[in-house]
Structures are given as C-alpha cells and as structure tokens.
Amino acid sequence: MATDGLHENETLASLKSEAESLKGKLEEERAKLHDVELHQVAERVEALGQFVMKTRRTLKGHGNKVLCMDWCKDKRRIVSSSQDGKVIVWDSFTTNKEHAVTMPCTWVMACAYAPSGCAIACGGLDNKCSVYPLTFDKNENMAAKKKSVAMHTNYLSACSFTNSDMQILTASGDGTCALWDVESGQLLQSFHGHGADVLCLDLAPSETGNTFVSGGCDKKAMVWDMRSGQCVQAFETHESDINSVRYYPSGDAFASGSDDATCRLYDLRADREVAIYSKESIIFGASSVDFSLSGRLLFAGYNDYTINVWDVLKGARVSILFGHENRVSTLRVSPDGTAFCSGSWDHTLRVWA
Amino acid sequence: MAAGPAPSGGRARAQRLHLSKMERVVLSMQDPDQGVRMRSQRLLITVVPHAVTGGDVVEWLIQKFCISQEEALHLGTLLVQHGYIYPLRDPGILVLRQDETPYRFQTPYFWTSTLWPAAELDYAIYLAKKNMRKQGSLLDHEKERYDQLHKRINHAWDLVLMQAREQLRAAKQRRKGDRLVIACQEQTFWLVNRPPPGSPNVLEQGPELSCCAASPVQMTKSSDFYKQEIECCRKALGRARVKSSVCLEAYLQFSVQHRLHDPMLSGCLPGNPWITDSAAYWAVNSPTAAAPTKLRVERWAFSFQELLEDPVGRAHFMDFLRKEFSAENLSFWEACEELRYGGQAQVPALVDAVYQQFLAPGAAHWVNIDSRTMERTLEGLRQPHRYVLDDAQLHIYMLMKKDSYPRFLKSDLYKGLLAEAGIPLETKRRVFPFPRKPWHASPSPALLPPSGEPMVAGGPDGGDSVA
C-alpha cells in the first residue's frame, strides 16, 4: 500500500536523525572530560634522539603484490600472502622460504600465523578463511590438509587467531566480523554493526577481557565484546576508510590508519580520539600501523610507498623511510620488538631494524 | 587488475581522496604570488610559456612543507607519475628531474579525477591519431592495444578514424606551441591511464571490491541498523569516562617504564639479531631459558599480566604459590584459559574436568571462591559453555593479582632471581672487511613436538656469554 511505504520512510528518516543527534550528544559528553592534549602532557618527556632504521632483510619470491603478513611467535618466521594466490612462510632471519601454498583464489588479503607456530590461516576473494597445518613432510601436500573454517558472503579482509590455534577471528567485506571454531568450522559469534566493508581487526592484549577492535569503510572503529557480540564502543572521527587498527601495548588505547592520510590514537577509558598523526606533505592513505614495544613509536605504511615513524606522545614525525617501490600494504612489528616487517605491492617484504 | 568500468560507489570516490589533495598542491604551485616560478621555455624553435623547472618544483615543496630534499623529490615524483605535472622534453617518461628540465602543469581537463574512467573509445582515437600523424610511430605495446581495440570495437571503427582525422585537422589550425603542449598533455594522460607494460599503474586501486552500499540486501541502512546505532549511542552516553589527563598520564608512565625494554629505542644486549646477524639475543631470551636476563626479570614487576605472559615468570610464580599452598589458583586460572580458547568440541569435557579438579566439594585442588560466585558458577555448570567459568576465573585472577602477586615481588624467591639475573655482554660488531656472519637457521616450531611445561631446572640454554 502506498501509505505503508510512506510510513516506513518516515520512520527510517526519524531513526536516522535520532541516531545523528545522539551521536552529537555523545561527542559533547566526551569533550567534557577532555582537559588536556597529549602533546601538552608529553612536554615532560625527553625528545627522541636521532633515529636510524634500515632495511636489514629483503624477502623476494612473491610474483605479485604482497597484501598481508604476520609474525610467528618465534620472532623470526613470517607468513605472507599475495595477489596471485601464493602464501609463503619464510624464516625471515635467513630469508629462506620454508613453505608455500597456492590458494585457489587471487587477492589473498589476509593471513595469520597460529600461536603454536604449527599452522597458518589465510583467505581473500574466496570469501573464506582456511587453515593449513604446516608440515615438513615432503610427501605431504599442504593443500591436502587444508581446513575451510570461515565462510563469509564477501571477501575476507583480515583474520587472526585468538590465544590458541583453535579459534579464529575474521573480518569481511560483507560488513561483519566473526569468531570461529577451527576444528569444526562452527560459527561461535558474529559481530554486526559496521555499515560497510570491515577492513581490519586487532585483538586486545587485555588481561581479563575478551575484546577486539575493528575498522571499516564506514570510517568507524568499533570495539566488540567477543562473548556477547555487542559493540562496546565506537569511534567515528576519520574522514575515510580505516585500513588498519592496532592496540597500544597497554591495551588502553588503539591506533588507526586511514585513507584520509592520517593515523589517530583513541583512548578507551577516555572514550575519545586523543591524537592525530598527520602532516600536510603526507597525501596518500595509511594502509597499516603498528607500535614499537614500549608504545612510544608508531610505524605506519602508506600508499605513497613510504613508511613514516611517529612519536606517539609528542605527535611529531620522527623519520620517513624510503625503499619500497610501490605502496606499502602491510606492516607488523616483531613479537619482541627488535624489528618490523613491511610488505608492498612491489612484490617484496622488508625487515627493518 | 583494476580494468573496465569503475564502481561508482562510495568506496571508489573515497579512494580518490589523495587525488583531490594532489590537485590542491598543484593549484598552490600555480599561484601567481606563492607558487613555483614560471618561465617561458624554449624548445628548439618553439617557445612554451608557463613552464617550471624540476629543480624549482622540488625547492618549492621543500619550503612549503618543511621537508627534506629526498621527501620533496619523492612527492614531486608522485605528482608527475599521476600526471599532474608533465615533462616538456622526453614526454614519454614520467620522471621528475631535480635540475633545469622543463615541466608544465597538466590542464584540469586531463586530470584523472575529471575524466576518470578513461574510455576505450578515446584511447582508440588517440592511438589512431598517433598512427595517422606518423606511420610507424606507435610503440610495440601501443600497436598491440590498437589491434585489440580494433577487434573489440570494430563496429565503431569508422567513428574512431573519423574523429581522429577531425582532431588532427583541428590541431593543424593551432599555433605550433599550443599543438606541442596539447600533444604533451594528451600523451601524459594516456601514460597515466594506460601505462606501458612494466610501468607501475598508479591508478590501480585493488580488486573490484563491491562496496556494501551497492548490494541492496545486506547493507541497506535499514531501521534495524539505525536502531542498533541508537542503542550503542545510548549505552555509550551512560558509560563512565575517565579524564583525559589521567589517561594520557598513563601513556607517559607506560612508555617511560618500558623504554629500556624497547629494542628500537634502547638497543638490546647482546645485540639486535637483525643488525648483528647473530641469533644470540633470541637464545638468551628463549621461552624456556633457565637463566633469564635482568631486564626480563624486571619486567615481571611491571604488571601481573607481564609476569603471566612470560612462561619462565609464570613458572617461578607457580613455585612461589606452591610454597604458599595456593598453587591451585594458578592451575585453575590456566584451566579456565584452556576452556575459553579451546576447541568447541572439547568444552563439555573440559568443564567437567575443571569441576572435578577444582570446584567439586572435596576436590583435589579445590579453589577458594566466595560463596556467591561459587553458587552462580555451579548453577551455570548445568549448561556448560566456554564462558561458564568467567566469573570464577576473574575472581581468582583478582585474588592472585591483588594478593599473591605483590607478595611474590617482595619475596626472597623473586629478589634472588633479580640478583642472579645477568646482563648479556654486547657482541662485538664485525667490522669490514670481515665477511658477514652466516645467518643460522633455527628449527621451525612446526617441527618440534608440542612442548609441555617450560624447563626451569637444568643448565642455561646456549647462547653467548652472560655476565
């Protein structure tokens, strides 16, 4: 009936405006307790000295764009995935390739190393996340033991094991995140709330909690309770897609990197954005971010082929690293903070220290 | 490869944010007062106005953004690669030279953002013109593409040739200088939009990702979506917030506390493996090292979480709890972690095992939980799920954190570990011309059998000398 349609539209419009006004009120409330800026507090901290970081290893072997990488807990092995469907496990210290798998799809945008070091997970345009146990048996074909764990209705953008090999958290272009049981492939919990593709996620290093943060094309960063599936906190200050989110080592904050060429720091207790890392000369989007062990440095890889190093407390850029010949698509600091690895569309990965 | 029609969704537009920013930069460069110095450039017998030199472009960027020469050159190069600035000589190569090489600013008509996506028909006309102007001037890859286009849009080929002829005729009527400039502009546009094989495609954005907004079923902003947002906002409005000054102070403390432990800020002993090529640092700090370093033992005092995260720290803590007859607390906590992160199929069995060992009356390792939590937990055990022990686990965790942990730090056991812990000697850097140290392989974790308890007793775990 025509009148029913009209009624529906009015309700939708009024709901939308109610949501907008509540968001406005929320910003006002958040601003009330904001009594000092980070760089003011940071005046008491020593400035960082001269900063020199160089490429110490270059990993060549991918035949196409490197899209994602992750470190093994042994602090030297990494897994990387690329556009042509290849997933490679390297001992990046010796630069030897130890395993290679060819996925049945292209654009493998997500990969992760299992905490035990005995398996890897990956996925992309196949809309799935698959787990491959790592084997050194020459007679065994790694692809044969592959386990399909997650099933989304659009591409897989990110995946991560939780504290064990038995659970995987995924983010997808279908706008949801999900927690899966690896053994059975059972969906344990799903997380709805993003209004567009979810591009990244990171698990909180919290001692008691079960939370994680995700970022998406809707410019929102959302913090979730893994147990209930509820969104606990949401932040919407970026001006474009959020490509990467990473927790500050204490777990009290997280950083984000976005296509709007800025990185931002959000504090969870203050419930607001507390710092923006940007420079007029930085025009291209930040694709991936990670903190150094003490949280003092923020490394960010950009689509203009560079890596910028930021002083998290003072807000200034400490250094700019050149070397990659195409956009930097992924960046992770090693588990013991001795180095970080960057992957690029120039087909290589570099370890910097 | 991003080929074919581009998605018109929000994602595609947002992805071109960097283009509009570049355009802003290029416009400021052309400002008559604050911009780059313009001059007329003589090319053979033609004079082209409004040209700039590569060197001036770089200099302007250095001044405007307060950046280094390297960064200015890099940014300038990106501007050229995206077709916003083009070289007047050698227009076939989009490179920024930091010298007297002349460049010009691309006309907005040919900006990527204006004409995107570049149409096949226009490319065909461009190639046809090039072919007509001078036979044999098409490069190999252009010839290939020309033939492919001919096949693909054969039905419109007469139109292509007619347009090409018409444009060439119109061009002849222009002054030589203008003709040259327009030719450069066009060539630059096509170099960016149809790069030669081997050149990076700067316009490539990624796979043809369908933005959720395009698919009506899933992500239409339904009333449910807004209701959820409203709910989330209401909850957020009700939450307790902490003053910024308190939160930010915490970062300062954290980074000061961890500064010496951050290898990137303070180095690490015996040496950063990636710099010294020696894996000694990893050997000395292995998860099962029997002789933890001083820094490592110090870290256990930073927080209870850091103590538990370190297998060696946790093992010593367990020893301490045994002396206090409360080791079952840590064992219980570990069992709960196993449940929370374990396989779904193991949940019932694990819950039962935990109950039998820790919660049942007369259990061998009975944990002392307050009666209310115990009651709630036992009630929940009727329908076991992986989070059923959360309350009890939190209670025990807090007990250890507030009570046992501070005592551990004050104990002789911990003080003894701190006193015994050594500081590794720095590995001497190899100086040229000594050959690089061979990079030693290490066994993959995938090869080792699953490890049990970390070894605490026994000899040190290899590695170089420890003071």
From TrEMBL, chain A:
<dbReference type="InterPro" id="IPR019775">
    <property type="entry name" value="WD40_repeat_CS"/>
</dbReference>
<feature type="repeat" description="WD">
    <location>
        <begin position="321"/>
        <end position="353"/>
    </location>
</feature>
<dbReference type="Pfam" id="PF25391">
    <property type="entry name" value="WD40_Gbeta"/>
</dbReference>
<protein>
    <recommendedName>
        <fullName>Guanine nucleotide-binding protein subunit beta-5</fullName>
    </recommendedName>
</protein>
<comment type="function">
    <text>Enhances GTPase-activating protein (GAP) activity of regulator of G protein signaling (RGS) proteins, such as RGS7 and RGS9, hence involved in the termination of the signaling initiated by the G protein coupled receptors (GPCRs) by accelerating the GTP hydrolysis on the G-alpha subunits, thereby promoting their inactivation. Increases RGS7 GTPase-activating protein (GAP) activity, thereby regulating mood and cognition. Increases RGS9 GTPase-activating protein (GAP) activity, hence contributes to the deactivation of G protein signaling initiated by D(2) dopamine receptors.</text>
</comment>
<feature type="coiled-coil region">
    <location>
        <begin position="9"/>
        <end position="39"/>
    </location>
</feature>
<dbReference type="GO" id="GO:0007165">
    <property type="term" value="P:signal transduction"/>
</dbReference>
<comment type="subunit">
    <text>Component of a complex composed of RGS9 (isoform RGS9-1), GNB5 and RGS9BP; within this complex, the presence of GNB5 stabilizes both itself and RGS9 and increases RGS9 GTPase-activating protein (GAP) activity. Interacts with RGS7, forming the RGS7-GNB5 complex; within this complex, the presence of GNB5 increases RGS7 GTPase-activating protein (GAP) activity. Interacts with GPR158; promotes the GTPase activator activity of the RGS7-GNB5 complex in absence of glycine, in contrast GTPase activator activity of the RGS7-GNB5 complex is inhibited in presence of glycine. Interacts with RGS6.</text>
</comment>
<keyword id="KW-0175">Coiled coil</keyword>
<keyword id="KW-0677">Repeat</keyword>
<dbReference type="InterPro" id="IPR015943">
    <property type="entry name" value="WD40/YVTN_repeat-like_dom_sf"/>
</dbReference>
<dbReference type="InterPro" id="IPR001680">
    <property type="entry name" value="WD40_rpt"/>
</dbReference>
<dbReference type="InterPro" id="IPR020472">
    <property type="entry name" value="WD40_PAC1"/>
</dbReference>
<keyword id="KW-0853">WD repeat</keyword>
<dbReference type="InterPro" id="IPR036322">
    <property type="entry name" value="WD40_repeat_dom_sf"/>
</dbReference>
<dbReference type="InterPro" id="IPR016346">
    <property type="entry name" value="G-protein_beta_1-5"/>
</dbReference>
<feature type="repeat" description="WD">
    <location>
        <begin position="235"/>
        <end position="276"/>
    </location>
</feature>
<feature type="repeat" description="WD">
    <location>
        <begin position="59"/>
        <end position="91"/>
    </location>
</feature>
<keyword id="KW-0807">Transducer</keyword>
<comment type="similarity">
    <text>Belongs to the WD repeat G protein beta family.</text>
</comment>
<feature type="repeat" description="WD">
    <location>
        <begin position="149"/>
        <end position="190"/>
    </location>
</feature>
<dbReference type="InterPro" id="IPR001632">
    <property type="entry name" value="WD40_G-protein_beta-like"/>
</dbReference>
Automatic annotation (TrEMBL), chain B:
<dbReference type="GO" id="GO:0032991">
    <property type="term" value="C:protein-containing complex"/>
</dbReference>
<dbReference type="InterPro" id="IPR016137">
    <property type="entry name" value="RGS"/>
</dbReference>
<dbReference type="GO" id="GO:0035556">
    <property type="term" value="P:intracellular signal transduction"/>
</dbReference>
<dbReference type="InterPro" id="IPR036388">
    <property type="entry name" value="WH-like_DNA-bd_sf"/>
</dbReference>
<keyword id="KW-0734">Signal transduction inhibitor</keyword>
<dbReference type="Pfam" id="PF00610">
    <property type="entry name" value="DEP"/>
</dbReference>
<feature type="region of interest" description="Disordered">
    <location>
        <begin position="440"/>
        <end position="467"/>
    </location>
</feature>
<dbReference type="InterPro" id="IPR040759">
    <property type="entry name" value="RGS_DHEX"/>
</dbReference>
<dbReference type="InterPro" id="IPR047017">
    <property type="entry name" value="RGS6/7/9/11_DHEX_sf"/>
</dbReference>
<dbReference type="Pfam" id="PF18148">
    <property type="entry name" value="RGS_DHEX"/>
</dbReference>
<protein>
    <submittedName>
        <fullName>Regulator of G protein signaling 11</fullName>
    </submittedName>
</protein>
<dbReference type="Pfam" id="PF00615">
    <property type="entry name" value="RGS"/>
</dbReference>
<feature type="domain" description="RGS">
    <location>
        <begin position="303"/>
        <end position="418"/>
    </location>
</feature>
<dbReference type="InterPro" id="IPR015898">
    <property type="entry name" value="G-protein_gamma-like_dom"/>
</dbReference>
<dbReference type="InterPro" id="IPR036390">
    <property type="entry name" value="WH_DNA-bd_sf"/>
</dbReference>
<dbReference type="GO" id="GO:0043005">
    <property type="term" value="C:neuron projection"/>
</dbReference>
<dbReference type="InterPro" id="IPR044926">
    <property type="entry name" value="RGS_subdomain_2"/>
</dbReference>
<dbReference type="Pfam" id="PF00631">
    <property type="entry name" value="G-gamma"/>
</dbReference>
<feature type="domain" description="DEP">
    <location>
        <begin position="32"/>
        <end position="107"/>
    </location>
</feature>
<dbReference type="GO" id="GO:0005096">
    <property type="term" value="F:GTPase activator activity"/>
</dbReference>
<dbReference type="GO" id="GO:0005737">
    <property type="term" value="C:cytoplasm"/>
</dbReference>
<dbReference type="InterPro" id="IPR047016">
    <property type="entry name" value="RGS6/7/9/11"/>
</dbReference>
